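Please fill in the sequence for the structure shown.

STRUCTURE ENCODING:
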């Protein structure tokens, strides 16, 4: 994580438990679904019936590709988009003047070591915090970032390198949500320890500092990725978020503490559309995958959900008895519904807009608009539905009671995958080619007056629970971590910081499968490592007035780290009845994907092939902020001359791999953005030594990615096997290991791993 220097005084104030506001409050269309999280604008303003990019209602267009929706506040438009086609693709968070479309600033970033394909970028949206005016975004590869209204980066997290977030070819990202003092994201992560197995997890960061406040695993093993957005509401005096997950559930999670409250199994795969809170105790959800009780696909359901916070064991599992009604006419993969005047509207996979009664669930009317539909969602304003389609049209529609009345069909010239946004007297449409602004006249857009937002006052209720921030940490040898312990009331609101009064100690949970402690010393509320601290992981427990709370973390690899695996115990049996053990606990997500075993007279690391899900794995061993290091290891692939696998190392967001089947050594980041190779005739069951380093120019953004690969029994060659020039070099990134065994047929092996600072 990187935190701007101007935040240092702010961090000190926050550590003292003070509420600090340093930015300008914002009001407008702050999330992609609008102020009520449902795609509905209640503003009393005239909006155009026709959206013609060559007509009088067209105000401006900005040339940037997008697959989401812009957000707007106080005369500024914030849009998540991308430029380029192949090797030059860059994502961007761009800020435009709402009146003219002129660029005020932009923040660009690039994909790294993801498997996103076919330019499936910017499928998501920023979110604006009403209290501070700051804007938050998650990039396609999982870079969560916070910027102020003037484009200054405040903090960022690489979810992939820090928490094991998985990426998928479809590039699904979605949108974050700001709730109180927190900004919340979710994704499929394979972290470490009990959170090592892949699950759909939620992470809540302090919106000002970026510190992790809680994480939550409300579901089961995922079948799919998901990019639904959390929708927040209340259960009694508790603040709650509701969302569909990659395991096919709709879940409820405590927004202040991360406690999993309830879940309902809706689908046989990921639920990607946003839910609607349809009144007290009612939630409407839709999906487009296989149903749980039939082979049909897609369903719109209305659930009866708890109106009182459960006091028994949680999460509560809601069953079919919770369904108030269902409608199988709706097959919506990720198009989110809107609800107006007790009617639910949603575009479905066939390109049809369907209207249903929100009380009974019965279909009232349907209107065919396009050949098919994917992602794009309708929105409602000024008594009209604005309905974009994948086909590149936007229909403006009136509900005429028992049918739809089409006011206009407008060609945008490119596919639409997001949703309309509204601000003042303007309508915004994002396409895969440009962002368009339309209004009822050609004059400049109106800017609604700002609405002041006061921060939530600290609770004065008794403290009944504790929260340790950060909830998870990673330190390199020689670093330290200061913790803040907050006292929370019964509803999860912060009362005050009790850090100076609390005690902290190392703690091994009784249920821990691995009895491990971090190799560091505790002084008050500070955890201190030394330069000789060993790789380790464990939990810390804080106590205050008979209350306890837990944080956990890792001491990860830094320069000087060497791993020969000899000290790691065996004693387990794998599916081949081999005597095996596990890689270091501090390696991110590695224990479920690698084994340690005997090979050629010593212990080595071998990728696991007991499930095809593990055929490709990338696991990080250090921090994402690392730079200027050399990573090397002995590597080998099992197999024959016809069937071999790929083994490699990750250095500063570049994957350098011996791709044995193709007889090459290859450097990639994202395969479609960067993929260069040179011939190397690797043989199976032969040890090679792979040496990697990344060197940045002394001035400018460019540099070299370098690799040497040679047979281990031979002396090191003087020249690099491959030197790849990059004009825009990734300037930092976590070290890691990589394996790819197609169809889980042939294992790879790694030994004598070494991490050192560049000379």
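FILLED IN BY: designer on duty
SEQUENCE:
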């Amino acid at each position: 994580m990187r935190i701007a220097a101007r935040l240092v005084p702010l961090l000190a104030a926050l550590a003292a438990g003070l509420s600090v506001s340093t930015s300008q409050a914002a009001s407008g269309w702050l999330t992609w679904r609008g102020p009520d999280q449902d795609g509905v604008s209640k503003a009393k303003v005239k909006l155009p019936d026709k959206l013609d990019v060559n007509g009088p209602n067209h105000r401006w267009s900005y040339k940037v590709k997008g697959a989401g929706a812009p957000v707007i506040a106080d005369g500024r438009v914030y849009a998540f988009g991308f430029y380029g086609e192949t090797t030059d693709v860059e994502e961007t968070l761009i800020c435009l003047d709402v009146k003219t479309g002129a660029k005020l600033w932009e923040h660009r970033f690039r994909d790294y070591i993801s498997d996103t394909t076919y330019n499936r970028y910017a499928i998501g949206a920023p979110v604006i915090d009403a209290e501070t005016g700051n804007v938050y975004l998650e990039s396609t590869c999982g870079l969560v970032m916070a910027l102020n209204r003037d484009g200054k980066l405040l903090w960022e997290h690489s979810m992939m390198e820090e928490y094991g977030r998985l990426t998928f070819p479809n590039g699904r990202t979605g949108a974050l949500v700001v709730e109180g003092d927190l900004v919340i994201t979710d994704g499929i992560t394979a972290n470490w320890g009990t959170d090592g197995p892949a699950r759909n997890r939620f992470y809540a960061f302090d919106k000002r500092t970026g510190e992790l406040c809680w994480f939550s695993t409300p579901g089961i093993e995922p079948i799919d990725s998901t990019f639904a957005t959390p929708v927040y509401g209340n259960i009694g005096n508790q603040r709650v978020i509701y969302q569909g997950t990659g395991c096919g559930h709709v879940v409820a999670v405590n927004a202040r503490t991360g406690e999993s409250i309830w879940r309902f199994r809706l689908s046989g795969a990921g639920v990607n559309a946003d839910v609607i809170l349809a009144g007290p105790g009612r939630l409407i959800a839709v999906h487009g995958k296989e149903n749980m009780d039939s082979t049909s696909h897609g369903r719109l359901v209305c659930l009866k959900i708890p109106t009182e916070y459960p006091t028994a064991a949680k999460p509560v599992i809601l069953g079919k008895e919770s369904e108030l009604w269902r409608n199988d006419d709706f097959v919506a993969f990720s198009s989110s519904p809107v609800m107006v005047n007790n009617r639910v509207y949603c575009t479905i996979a066939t390109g049809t807009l369907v209207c249903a009664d929100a009380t009974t669930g019965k279909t009232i009317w349907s209107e065919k608009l396009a050949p098919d539909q994917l992602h794009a969602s309708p929105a409602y304003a000024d008594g009209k539905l604005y309905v974009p389609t994948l086909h590149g049209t936007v229909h403006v529609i009136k509900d005429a009671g028992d049918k739809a009345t089409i006011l206009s069909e407008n060609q945008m010239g490119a596919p639409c995958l997001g949703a309309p946004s509204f601000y003042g007297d303007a309508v915004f449409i994002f396409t895969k080619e440009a962002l368009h602004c339309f209004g009822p006249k050609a004059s400049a857009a109106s800017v609604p007056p700002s609405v002041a937002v006061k921060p939530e006052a600290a609770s004065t209720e008794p403290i009944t629970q504790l929260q340790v921030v950060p909830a998870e940490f990673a330190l390199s040898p020689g670093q330290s971590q200061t913790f803040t312990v907050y006292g929370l009331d019964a509803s999860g609101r912060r009362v005050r910081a009790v850090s100076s009064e609390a005690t902290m100690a190392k703690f091994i949970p009784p249920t821990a499968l691995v009895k491990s402690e971090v190799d560091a010393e505790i002084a008050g509320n500070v955890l201190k490592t030394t330069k000789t601290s060993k790789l380790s992981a464990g939990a810390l427990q804080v106590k205050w007035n008979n209350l306890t709370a837990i944080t956990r973390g890792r001491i990860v690899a830094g320069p000087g780290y060497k791993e020969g695996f000899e000290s790691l115990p065996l004693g387990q049996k794998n599916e081949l009845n081999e005597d095996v053990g596990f890689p270091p606990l501090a390696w991110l997500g590695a224990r479920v994907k690698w084994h340690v075993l005997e090979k050629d007279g010593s212990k080595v690391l071998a990728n696991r092939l007991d499930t095809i899900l593990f055929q490709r794995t990338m696991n990080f061993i250090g921090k994402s902020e690392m730079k200027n290091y050399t990573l090397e290891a002995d590597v080998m692939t099992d197999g024959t001359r016809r069937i071999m696998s790929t083994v490699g190392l990750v250095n500063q967001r570049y994957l350098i791999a011996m791709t044995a089947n193709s007889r090459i050594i290859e450097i990639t980041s994202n395969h479609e953005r960067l993929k260069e190779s040179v011939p190397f005739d690797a043989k199976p069951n032969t040890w090679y030594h792979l040496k990697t380093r990344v060197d940045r120019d002394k001035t400018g953004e460019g540099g070299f990615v370098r690799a040497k690969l040679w047979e281990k029994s031979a002396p090191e060659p003087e020249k690099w096997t491959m030197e790849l020039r990059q004009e825009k070099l990734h300037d930092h990134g976590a070290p890691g290991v990589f394996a790819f065994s197609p169809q889980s047929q042939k294992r790879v092996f790694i030994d004598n791993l070494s991490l050192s600072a560049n000379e």
